[in-house]
Target: MerR family DNA-binding transcriptional regulator
Amino acid sequence: MAHISDRIHADEQLPVELSADGEHDFGDARRIGDVAKEFGVSLRTLRFYEDKGLLDPERVGSMRLYHRRDLSRLRLILLGRKVGFSLREVKQLMDLYDPSGTNLRQMKAVVERSTRQLGRLEKQRAELDSAISALQDVITTTREKLSALANSKPN
Model:
């Protein structure tokens, strides 16, 4: 079997082997297209996150390989976006991660920023509820006027 070894990080390697059918076997790593499909994002989105320093997939030639760490980071990015954090805020929170520590700073920042974001979302929800109520009133009133007009016309 042919082996290609490329550095993932300074202390870890990923062996790439050819399978029986001649295809590359990347172990637990996933190609960009597979990751895009699994997470429902475009290839362009993944490349954009990489350009912004949010993701750092391994490169084997021109191919990007995503490992568990990359997939975890992508989940956090997408969760952050879902709850309304900017990419800058997501990156700031992820940059606080210290694999050798307790991550106390990161956890405090997550609680503080999440609490602030929750307040913003609750305010938006109240505004949306008010807009929905106003639209329901418009629809009801307009339907009543339409019905009155239809009933007042001679046949």
